[in-house]
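Title: Prediction job returns without error message
Component: structure pipeline
Severity: low
Priority: P3
Assignee: unassigned

Description:
Job completed but the reporter wants confirmation the result is attached to the right record. Sequence as submitted:
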Amino acid sequence: MVARNPNNLIGFGHHHGIADDIEHFTIDGGATLANETNPGEAMEAIMETIGTKATILAVGAEDGNGAFRVMLHGSAWTDSDLQTALQALGATVGTNNYDASGATATAFTY
């Protein structure tokens, strides 16, 4: 491991070296998305929706029940606007007809 410069502070609540305008959201689709990751399936629609107002930097692991986190750069989303947009995808999203009508989006802070 490289020795740490004693003048470099270790802080909380920011993203050293990434960017100043990073936001995190917890997305909960309401049911597992584990089988919705192929082209034309629900995750593609969800990611395309998020990508209309932000650059997606990272997508966290899905919890087995449809919840995962996203790290966004330059986001114009509020959690309520994102939730509304995801719910607007409807009850028949993608080739497997995933129901996103009850999806939630919550701002997440480390």
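Comment from assignee: result matches the submitted record. The beta strands are 22-28, 55-59, 67-73, 104-108.
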